[in-house]
Amino acid sequence: MMNKFLEISRVGIEFPTSNGTYCALSDVDFHINEGEFVSIIGHSGCGKSTVLNIVAGLYQATSGGVILDGKEVNEPGPDRAVVFQSHALMPWLSVYDNVALGVEQVFKGNKTRAEMMEWVEHNLRLVKMDHATQKMPHEISGGMKQRVGIARCLAMQPKVMLMDEPFGALDALTRANLQDSVMEIQKELNTTVILITHDVDEAVLMSDKIVMMSNGPAARVGEILEIDLARPRERLALAKSDKFNYYRQQVLSFLYEKKGVVDFDAAKKKIETTPAESAQASSNDEKVS
């Protein structure tokens, strides 16, 4: 039986501005079980990334707090690894050395040099980048850079992997391939994942649970949708799945109809589009503006 591994408990945060205090989040409250893949979705400015940064320990909540595996989160730590939209690789280091950098920081004193080398190579194999260990970042594609960034996070053996729109800058085919790889790795390692995304299909495809945020200011959790789709998930099979389309419709309904989007005809068209049709559309069509 799964437990409440990560608890985001009544979190609120305020930021000082020239016009006074701005309340970005108010009473955000949900939990994540160990091994769950959870997406957070909502319109721009709803505080999705702010929630992730609070879990990462990069921001301090004004009220409430975060408990991870029984311990309060109040600063960054290797138990929470972040994959950003930008790969954030060190341009002067090779693929191997970019991953080794994190491994040395986390395991120095606990692993021998040989053990650390094998661990780096193991994690590069997981993301299918073991063929390019000596390449420099400028010598590999954007998708490959993200794979290295994911390997660097996995190599730290975090309790939670935090992914802030990691596929947003990639072309559609590379994005799909990397989504599939992340799902395979997550299933193999039973990693707990929080994914920030604007993409409805991506959220439904990858998640066990989708947390839908209300609009800001003072954004909060609007609805939580449990995704009951068998794994492994094949995107071509899901294109014909009524269940997949039902979940997709629920998310779109929340984002467009319940949040007061003016163009209801456009929202309705999005809801009625099948996953197969969506795959042929522009990669921006399913993004929430």
UniProtKB/TrEMBL annotation:
The keyword Nucleotide-binding applies. CDD domains: ABC_NrtD_SsuB_transporters. It is a peripheral membrane protein. Gene3D superfamilies: P-loop containing nucleotide triphosphate hydrolases. This is Nitrate/nitrite transport system ATP-binding protein. The lineage of its organism: Bacteria, Pseudomonadati, Pseudomonadota, Gammaproteobacteria, Arenicellales. Coiled coil: none annotated. Keywords: ATP-binding, Cell membrane, Membrane, Nucleotide-binding, Transport. One of its GO terms (cellular component) is plasma membrane. One of its GO terms (molecular function) is nitrate transmembrane transporter activity. It comes from the Bacteria. PANTHER family: NITRATE ABC TRANSPORTER ATP-BINDING PROTEIN, TAURINE IMPORT ATP-BINDING PROTEIN-RELATED.
